[in-house]
Design brief:
GO terms for molecular function: hydrolase activity. 53% of the residues lie in helices and 5% in strands. By secondary structure, it is mainly α. Bound molecules: the ligand Nc1nc2c(c(CN[C@H]3C=C[C@H](O)[C@@H]3O)cn2[C@@H]2O[C@H](COP(=O)(O)O)[C@@H](O)[C@H]2O)c(=O)[nH]1. The ligand Nc1nc2c(c(CN[C@H]3C=C[C@H](O)[C@@H]3O)cn2[C@@H]2O[C@H](COP(=O)(O)O)[C@@H](O)[C@H]2O)c(=O)[nH]1 binds next to helix 4, helix 10, helix 11 and helix 14.
């Protein structure tokens, strides 16, 4: 994703609140010299998988809803994945395109077995409708058709998803520049690659083009590792759990600098240790470290993008 890499690098060069500490970065790479931590996709055992097109439909619905869990302190990503998996095991047609266009908030809650309103519930429902409607209109109702039309290119898949589904157009304006972050579109490609182990629906000749997925967990991990440094105002706001507005300089910098830092980490691993590693692999390792650390303080932004 050249536009994600280039625009994130531009933010990192012009950043006011977040900086990348090169000695912190080198230290982390140093610890990885011996062995690069490798985390298995679905190490948690929470995902639906049947090696076929229904898995693709599951992953697309999952990533359409893969954002903003923190406003409910008891809710997390695992609930979404497990809930959707259960729903599909109980009813194989639960994610048929025509069903997706009709879900209501209470039905979505019931599907996920969640006892109260979901964060940004109306947006979640709207995005499900958008997915169902556009899959039906352009892809015979099937996310697998969308993937098949990408000729084993993750870059094409991200382009196609963002072209057809406005809810996946994760971008911001920053100091007069358009910045592309594309977290959920890229993670969809990565989830396919991980779930299908690089084969079939998960075969992409250019998986190395995907960047890390700028969410709220990985920036916090990078900060804890000493790779990212925050201005004192930003550090205090995160510490106090104050909301950081979507599209503010602080928010864009947190996300874009994380992308840039992981790209630098990958480059350094290659230069210093001769080890070729994918940003997707670094991302999963960093994310798994973050979600296993309950005291991690992350930034709080209400957003449909991550
Ligand atoms: N960068 C990055 N962010 C990721 C994921 C994943 C899950 N990936 C699946 C793929 C393989 C694994 O086996 C996982 O099952 C979720 N998130 C983000 O985290 C946040 C949720 O946090 P919490 O509220 O604590 O549950 C939220 O923004 C969510 O969008 C990832 O891989 N990378």
């Amino acid at each position: 994703m050249e536009e994600v890499r280039e625009t994130s690098a531009w933010v990192a060069r012009n950043s006011s609140h977040v900086t990348i500490d090169s000695s912190g970065l080198e230290k982390v790479v140093e610890t990885m010299k011996e062995s690069i931590p490798k985390v298995e996709w679905d190490y948690e055992g929470i995902h639906y998988f049947d090696n076929g097109p229904l898995t693709v439909q599951y992953l697309f619905v999952l990533d359409a809803l893969n954002f903003c869990f923190w406003p409910d302190k008891d809710l997390n990503y695992d609930h979404l994945a497990k809930g959707l998996k259960e729903a599909l095991l109980n009813d194989h047609s639960a994610f048929d395109a025509d069903r997706l266009t009709n879900y209501t908030g209470p039905q979505l809650r019931e599907l996920l077995k969640w006892p109260r309103s979901l964060p940004l519930e109306e947006e979640r429902v709207r995005l499900l409708h958008e997915v169902g409607f556009e899959l039906e209109r352009s892809f015979e109702g099937k996310a697998s058709k969308l993937v098949e039309s990408c000729g084993k290119s993750a870059v094409k898949l991200v382009a196609l998803v963002t072209r057809h589904f406005p809810g996946f157009r994760d971008h911001s304006m920053y100091k007069g520049h358009q910045v592309f972050l594309y977290k959920r579109a890229q993670i969809f490609a990565a989830d396919l690659w991980g779930a299908f182990k690089g084969q079939g629906y998960g075969e992409f000749n250019d998986i190395g083009s995907i960047t890390m997925f700028a969410d709220y967990i990985v920036p916090a991990v990078l900060q804890q590792l000493g790779v990212l440094k925050y201005s004192s105002t930003l550090a205090n706001a995160i510490q106090a759990s104050s909301e950081i507005g979507a599209g503010t300089e602080e928010e864009v910098e947190l996300r874009a600098c994380s992308i840039f830092a992981v790209e630098k980490m990958r480059e350094l691993l290659s230069i210093k240790c001769g080890k070729q590693v994918l940003s997707v692999e670094l991302d999963l390792w960093l994310w798994s470290v973050g979600v296993q650390c309950p005291s991690l303080q992350h930034h709080r932004t209400l957003s449909i993008y991550y």
